Amino acid sequence: MGHGMWASCFLVIALAILNIGAVAIDQTQQTERISGSAGDVLEDDPIGRLKVFVYELPSKYNKKILQKDSRCLTHMFAAEIFMHRFLLSSPVRTLNPEEADWFYTPVYSTCDLTPNGLPLPFKSPRMIRSAIQLISSRWPYWNRTEGADHFFVVPHDFAACFHYQEEKAIERGILPLLQRATLVQTFGQRNHVCLKEGSIIIPPYAPPQKMQAHLIPPDTPRSIFVYFRGLFYDVGNDPEGGYYARGARASVWENFKDNPLFDISTEHPTTYYEDMQRAVFCLCPLGWAPWSPRLVEGVVFGCIPVIIADDIVLPFADAIPWDEIGVFVAEEDVPRLDTILTSIPQEVVLRKQRLLANPSMKQAMLFPQPGQPGDAFHQILNGLARKLPHDSSTYLRPGERVLDWNAGPVGDLKPW
Ligand SMILES: *[C@@H]1O[C@H](CO)[C@@H](O)[C@H](O)[C@H]1NC(C)=O
């Protein structure tokens, strides 16, 4: 087939896409109920279903760290700070630890930033160890379960493995003292040492007000077929190539940089949020870690997320039927991305758009201040409530010890 024929082919497809956008105009008021594997659980109300005790820690574990660098309030790891604030004034909070179902230890483990604003996780293990030492000596509740009724928010790239390079993260594994605790984390990938059974996967933090400020009229046609802004290569950290994003982003660029259906670039325009609202599909490829804020942005802006991250576990997957909302493309299939996306039937695209238009879907991805019913805070609480009552293995026999306080790299054992 000659080049001209391809070009006319694209034109036909592009027109078809504009048509999808046009049809979508009539559908904006129409949304669809979202039923996850646990039923219509996005609308569940956790209030009254669990009680959480918030340990009071010296401010050096949380507020003081934030005072040093307020950028922690806006980066994609900020959920740990907002979850703390949310719980302090939440009706699920109890001041009586004797009646608590869950114990929460507010440690801001991702707020030690480089000059560029990227979190350095190297002190986090010592900080968390130190906090656990403190709560286990001042209160009797840690020793009773060695953390099995405690949860920790660990929003770092590879969560409680506390390293941003996957190889190193795997080598470290989950911090030994957290082995019995429930981890609330952004990192999700099946069969990975940094994701243990029973963890609650959350969306990364994306600023709700900022996104709100960039909303355009919902009837704006979606005239962009595929949209992506971000790195394709990370030459600084991966000079040879192939390690960053396991080569998937490089493959997107190499295969589709000249394809008129693909609006992709490394330039981050000021109209980024608006552009997502004009796109049908938004690529969410893995980077160093499998997750990224693009998923949240896609949902909020009604752009169907195209997830390219093999074995990813998405946020609140027991409540949200991601298969029906997004499109999953295997990393090795990236070269066929154009065919895969253009062959999705129009009615399937429309259904995904209707599911994305459901306000409860958007709400579940956001950490607004103050919290609102159905938001990500409430979904976390729902996840914790669904784990109740604790089973008998939660509580240790008097004197029984499972955790090894001396396990892990020696550097982590130094006091903090
Ligand atoms: C918890 O156990 C540790 C030893 O494992 C002990 O040092 C500590 O005093 C205990 N905490 C309480 C509150 O009894």
UniProtKB/TrEMBL annotation:
Question: What lineage is on file?
Answer: Eukaryota, Viridiplantae, Streptophyta, Embryophyta, Tracheophyta
Membrane topology term reads: Single-pass type II membrane protein
Any GO CC annotation of this UniProt entry: Golgi membrane
Q: Which family is it part of?
A: Belongs to the glycosyltransferase 47 family.
Annotated source species: Spirodela intermedia
**Localisation per UniProt entry:** Golgi apparatus membrane
Q: Where is the signal peptide?
A: 1-24
- What is the name attached to this protein's record? Exostosin GT47 domain-containing protein
Domain Exostosin GT47 residues, every copy: 49-344
Enumerate the GO terms in the molecular function aspect: glycosyltransferase activity
Q: Which key words tag this protein in UniProt?
A: Glycosyltransferase, Golgi apparatus, Signal, Signal-anchor, Transferase, Transmembrane
In Gene Ontology terms, what is a biological process of this protein?
Answer: glucuronoxylan biosynthetic process
UniProt cross-references to InterPro entries, sorted A to Z: Exostosin (IPR004263), Exostosin_GT47 (IPR040911)
